[in-house]
What does this fold into?
Amino acid sequence: MASRLNPYISFDGDARQAVEFYESVFGGTLTLNTFGEYGADDPAQADKVMHATLETASGFTLMASDTPPGMAHNPGDNIAISLSGDDADELRGYWTRLSEGGAVQMPLEKQMWGDEFGACVDRFGITWMVNISSPQG
It folds into this structure.
């Protein structure tokens, strides 16, 4: 298998809701394991997500977990996820669903470099950038 790079997002107790939301946006197959499945002693942590992976038909991989007790959680200030390509309908659909319930930082519109670009923060505090390449020709 070739090397790959994919985002891994830490959440503060709502990882399950977040990855299920992302599954509703992108489709794909979600696998999820809880701390309880791996013998967590704290009953309050048993149903929290130890590791989740979403693999989509478009080749996206998104990983996530709940931050375990004792570890720092600093949402939103250290990650942005970029979606780019030339399938305008697909990317606009992602943009619409990701921005629902969140905040648009920059509207998805034509930019000086010729592409459509927008940035939003979803309802879980994650920043998303969408770039739709303009046709070459």
